[in-house]
Structures are given as C-alpha cells and as structure tokens.
Amino acid sequence: MSVQSAQEYYPHGFQNSSATLVEDGAAAAVATVSPGIDVKARFTDDELAVHLDKLRKQHPEFSILPHQPAHAVISQQMTQHIARINAETCLPGEENSFFVGDLGEIDNLHRNWKKHLPRVQPFYAVKCNPNPVVLTRLASMGVNFDCASKLEIETILGLGVAPERIIYANPCKMASFIRYASDKRVLKSTFDNVEELHKIKKFHPDSQLFLRIATDDSTAQCRLSTKYGADLENVCELVATCKELQLNLCGVSFHVGSGANDFSTLYKATRDARWVFDLVQNEFHMQPLTVLDVGGGFQLESFAEAAHVLNMALDEFFPADSSNNVSIIAEPGRYFVASAFTLGANVIAKRKVSPRESMIYINDGVYGNMNCILFDHQEPTPRTLHHAGAFHYFDDESTSATHSSSQQHKVSIWGPTCDGLDCITKEYYMKHDLVVGDWLFFQNLGAYTSSAATAFNGFDQQATIIFIDENGKVLK
Ligand SMILES: Cc1ncc(COP(=O)(O)O)c(C=O)c1O
C-alpha cells in the first residue's frame, strides 16, 4: 500500500509521523501516518465536550445510584459480630477488622449492567477483588473474567469456568505464563508491542489477539495508558507484524483509566478502535476484526452516564446491525464490587491532643485493607459503628468531613503499623468523643482493598468476611 493511497483513505488522518504498512504480506513500506483522528465522526472533540455537558444537564437520573445495599442486614451482622468480641479477654486477632460482603448488591449491579449495556459482555477484572465467593457468584451470573497472571487464570479455571470465558488481559506477559495459557487453552489475550508478538508466536501461536491502544486517561483516578497501550502511530507496525507472523488478530482493546470521570475518552477511544478495525480490513486486507474490548473504568456513581456515552459511541462506530459482526466485551472491576463491601475496624488506641482533638489508632490501615488510599487514591469515609455501648450504623451524621455544631470532635485516624505513612485521614470530625474499644465502619471498600492487603509489620490483614446473600441470609 502506498502512502498516497493511505492519505486518500484517511484524508486528515495520515500526516507527519512514521509507521509501517505492509503490502500484502510483502516487504514493509514506511508511510507517514498521524492516524485515527478522522474516522467519520458525528462530533469533533470540542463539540463532544459541549454535547456531554448538555447530556449531563438533560439527564438528572445519571446521578441516581441504582444500588440498594442491604443496610438492615449489614448493620445486624456488624452488630452481632462485634457483640461477640470482648476486648478485655479476647485472643490476639479476635478483634481484627472484618468485612460484610453483600452478594445481593453484586446481583443488583449485574442487573443494572445488563439494563444499561445490553450489548456488552463483562469480563470481570479479577485483580480488583479475587475473593472466591465473589468470583463464584459472578461466574454463576454468566460474567466472564479478565485475568492478568497465571494465578488468576488458575483460580478462575479452578472454579470450573471454561477457558473461552477468560481474557488474559495483560499486554506484557511472562513467557512461562504464556506457555501456561497455551496449555490451558486460554486463547484471548492482549498485546501492545512487537516483542510480545514474537513471544506469542513462539509460545502460543493460536492466540486470539487484541491490540490494546492507548487512551487519553489524564483525568482518571488511576491512569493506565502511561504504562500500557500502543499509540496510534505504532498501530500499523503492530498490525503489520501480526500479518507477517500470521497471528490471529481478532480485536482491539482499550482502558480509559480506573475511576474515569471524563467519558469523552470512551467516545474517542471507540472512534480510534474503529480506525484500527478499518485499517486492518481495508489497508492490510486481513480478516475483519470481530471483537471490541472497551476495558474497565466504570464506577457505580457515574455508571449511567458512562453507559450512555459508550452506547452512543457504539451506535455510531459499531452499530448493532447485520452488516456489523462485532461483539463487544468489557473488563469492569471496581463497578462490580466496590459498593458491596463494608469494613468494620476497632479503635485500639487514642492520644488526646487537646480537649476537642485526638489521634485515633485503628486496627486496619494503608498496609492492610485500606491500601486503596495509597494505590488507588481512594478516600474511605469513617463512620461510627459503636460507641459507649450504643450502635450508630444508621446515624448519617456520626461523622463529617467538616467541623459543625454536631460534629465537634476533631480526629486524625491512623492504622496500626509503626509507619507514619499509615494514616487513613488527617482530619475528620466526630459527633462522639471516641474511646478505645469503639468501632468505626467504612462503606464502599470492595475494590482494590483486600486484594493488595499486606501483613507488613506483623499485622495479619486477612480480614474475616461475613457474606450475606440476596435474601439477607448469612453464607455459612
Ligand atoms: C487491563 C485492565 N482491565 C480492567 C481493569 C479494571 O479496571 P476498573 O476496576 O477500573 O474497572 C484494570 C485495572 O487496572 C486493568 O488494568
């Protein structure tokens, strides 16, 4: 293919940078390519920003949370659990922090997913919360899995899930793990560099490959495209290598960043993916791609809006009509588990700084189940569970981020390790003057929490999890 014809095909898309185009499997020719931008699109980037702003105003329901956590049962379970603990006599660790996991909430979230994104098959990102009860529940609902390592693949296969329901979504894999995936017939995997393709050719040549493209994730809570994803300038070289090595390129994947809030990136990434689909078929004359993987980055708080924008982009670039044989998958993590877990933690020590100010030490922190503060930029909200013989689960005003007449006790809250970094919040305001032996609770702590907890400094953070099902029954 000549530079000339490439420019004709994408009149504004090909300029100024280098990439490799292959002429029907023959020697590579270097073209100048600045790709992607000019797939025929309904919106320019500026128009898109205005449109999304308008959408948000037109759809107040975007901000309505669809979940209904089983508060009555969660509160009852927390109450019963801590009532069994006598801090004066208990064995070491019996007063450890613990979770209540609400499986009914995961059901609700799945129903909500299917309602808003009926075309998109979720592959849950195991890294987010690999608890076997959660994985089993998701598998039974027909959710598939995104695994990033041998152990994650092994765990999912161990649940009896078929290998076709797994995508090995790590673009930079160890050779031994690729061989393991090959042995287990896990075929779907992602890549974003030429070296990976040579490894895959050697160890797993019948892989079904997804080319991961970079996105603009600069506004996401956790950026991923700084580490993974091919820039569009490099896509031609990657496609050419797939062709040369006779690998099975079957789709495109992207991830707009975890905790994404600017959904114009979903639209733009879908548009870029369309460009790759067209390029593969029309310029490289390879088999048409058949799967688009829209990654993760969804969260409950903004799910309706993200789904709306994604559907708009899919309708435009991958319409669900008979001419378009593309299936759509996603790799949601946080969305499926964050709101399903509530953590209870015990006040183990207190230092009074002034009559209305204290340092409170609890038995979980940033090296334990609240590592999300460091790694995931979360800000867990402390609430009072138990103080001076009374339970306060339903008191929304037991704590506040700001000083007020009913929350006058200023605290900083610290984890149990000896590291000064182990701080949960530097400043919060409590209704009660907490004492040693009281309990706090933290909602929405299901994502990127227990999965990365460590035993640093000798604090075992394998917290007990009390699971409740959709009928409010405790799982034995
Ligand atoms: C490749 C990949 N897919 C999916 C996810 C899940 O993202 P999220 O939890 O934001 O949905 C991640 C998170 O890091 C990821 O790296």
Structural summary, described in words:
The structure is a single chain. The strands form 3 sheets. Strands 3, 12, 13, 14, 15, 16, 17, 18, 19 and 20 form a 10-stranded mixed sheet that branches. The protein has helices spanning 3-9, 45-58, 71-83, 103-116, 132-140, 150-158, 175-183, 194-203, 235-244, 264-283, 303-317, 334-337, 372-375, and strands at 18-22, 28-32, 98-102, 120-125, 144-147, 166-168, 188-191, 208-212, 248-253, 291-293, 327-330, 341-354, 357-362, 382-387, 390-391, 399-400, 409-414, 423-430, 439-442, 464-468. It folds into 2 domains: 3-43 and 103-337, TIM Barrel (Alpha-Beta Barrel), CATH 3.20.20.10; 71-100 and 338-468, Lyase, Ornithine Decarboxylase, Chain A, domain 1 (Beta Barrel). By secondary structure, the protein is an alpha/beta fold. The protein contains 13 helices and 20 strands. Residues 125, 128, 146, 169, 224, 255, 258, 295-298, 331-335 line the site of pyridoxal-5'-phosphate. This is Ornithine decarboxylase.
Secondary structure layout plus pairing:
Elements: H1 3-9, E1 18-22, E2 28-32, H2 45-58, H3 71-83, E3 98-102, H4 103-116, E4 120-125, H5 132-140, E5 144-147, H6 150-158, E6 166-168, H7 175-183, E7 188-191, H8 194-203, E8 208-212, H9 235-244, E9 248-253, H10 264-283, E10 291-293, H11 303-317, E11 327-330, H12 334-337, E12 341-354, E13 357-362, H13 372-375, E14 382-387, E15 390-391, E16 399-400, E17 409-414, E18 423-430, E19 439-442, E20 464-468
Parallel strand pairs: 3-20, 4-5, 4-11, 5-6, 6-7, 7-8, 8-9, 9-10, 10-11, 13-17
Antiparallel strand pairs: 1-2, 3-12, 12-13, 12-19, 14-15, 14-19, 16-18, 17-18
Helix pairs in contact: 10-11
